[in-house]
Amino acid sequence: MSSTSRYGAPRGGGGGRGTGIPENIVDVEEKSVESEAVDRSWQEWKAQLKFPPPDSLYITEDVTATTGNLFEDYILKRELLLGIYEKGFETTSPIQEESIPIALFGSDIFARVNNGTGKTVAFCIPALEKIDQANNAIQVVILVPTQELALEASHLCKELGKNLKVQVMVTTDGTSLKDDRMGLDQPVHLLVGTPGRILDFAERGIAILKDCSMLIMDEADRLLSPEFQPIVQQLIHFMPENRQILMFSATCRVTVKDFIDRFLHNPYVIDMTDELPLKGRTQYYTFVEDIQKVDYVETLLSKLMINQSIIFCNSVNRVEYLAKKFKEFGYPCFYIHAKMPQDHCNRVLHDFRNLACRTLVCTDLVMKRIDIQDVNVVINFDIPKNSETYLQRVGRFGRFGHQDFLVMNLITYEDRFDLCRIEKELRTEIKQIQPHYFKPFIGGECNRDDLFKSSVELGE
């Protein structure tokens, strides 16, 4: 009896099509035709997408040193790929290239990776890909140590997954308890938040985690500090035994190692911290009396070519003082600090992210895991006392891997030892620019290229 191929052509006895052609050759031809049709359909679909303008800034070698994988190589859902492309992502960064396929395979991961390398995208994509939209249950939990980080991660998940029917919710100690309870009465697939708030909801039976198959821990070293570790461990017990855990951390302290040994199953370990943490940052300092700092900052901001800038101060009073001086100069700026209401800080950061203002003056509040890609200048009005804070201030803003990023440190005589220690511990070079360099530009034109050139002219 003859059979019919998938295209309706009769198959004669002996496996051919009545033509004597072996069946295996016919199958190869059919698959080739199918593959060509799929490729053609894919290229047509991709050609219709509206990509953001290409990025013309120089990108550093630590980001370009990949095998050139595209996100489409991971066989992601087309709706997710659409969100990825609309964000301007097409090729992967090293941490994305290394971790995404492992996460999609289902293995636990511990990744040591510096800030500003695209790690948030590295865990958001597998989370969105593995969610079953038909199952109205919490399937992924992203734990972060601060509200700012939670807002950032949830915002990115919503943007990447906007074409998926995935419900993303954020809950932290700074959000409304009543609103969060009402939100969890509705279907939620991906929950982002701080450990304390999510554990509270889990213990009350409001957040049901029995279907949560993936736990992501961003800034795991901070999540496993004495403040958070007991809470995280309790939270894990509400999840299935076969859950997948993805951990991302800049360091590997003893508490982190103990946690890995106890809760992760044969984890895939990624270590990318051998790279210089501030590669791509052009850093300068100038010795200046404290009373002169305001004038130097005003000169920098008025003469440099700046997309957006952040100015860090070491105290609330210093932030308010500098913001007041800017107002006297007629120079627009936003400012926030730790004594302001959280809602106000969130609103200011939202407006700053959306380019409502080019300059933000703040304490270290804003550095707590806020990714603002348009920032290309950071000014340390007051230099921090330790290298970790310096790295947080300087290393997490701007587009990862881009070299067009300026850091200016205003140093008093008393700060010199802190500066040397920061250089040594971060294995970085901070070049000196003499204070008198700025004087010729008070009434003239100055741009960042002139500023970079000056360091050469001064023999630095």
Any overview of this molecule?
With 460 residues, the chain is an alpha/beta fold. It folds into three domains: 3-47; 61-271, Rossmann fold (3-Layer(aba) Sandwich); 282-457, Rossmann fold (3-Layer(aba) Sandwich). It has 17 helices and 16 strands. Strands 5-6-4-7-8-3-9 form a seven-stranded parallel β-sheet, sandwiched between helices. Strand 1 (3-4) and strand 2 form a beta hairpin. Helix 4 (94-105) runs parallel beside helix 5, helix 8 (195-203) packs across helix 10 (229-236) and helix 15 packs across helix 16. The N and C termini lie far apart (87 Å).
Short description:
With 460 residues, the protein is α/β, with parallel strands linked by helices.
Mean pLDDT: 80
At the first level of CATH, the class of the largest domain is: Alpha Beta
Query: If classified by CATH, what would the architecture of the largest domain be?
Result: 3-Layer(aba) Sandwich
Radius of gyration: 26 Å
The stretches of 5 or more residues where confidence is low (pLDDT under 50) are 1-19, 440-460
- The computed structural class is alpha/beta
Helix content: 25-40%
Could you give me the name of the CATH homologous superfamily of the largest domain? P-loop containing nucleotide triphosphate hydrolases
- What's the oligomerization state? single chain
Largest sheet features: 7 strands, parallel
Q: How many angstroms separate the termini? A: 87 Å
If helices are DSSP runs of H or I spanning 4 or more residues, what is the number of helices?
Answer: 17
Proportion of residues in β-strands: 5-15%
Count of separate structural domains? 3
Here the CATH topology of the largest domain equals Rossmann fold
Query: How would the global form be characterised?
Result: globular
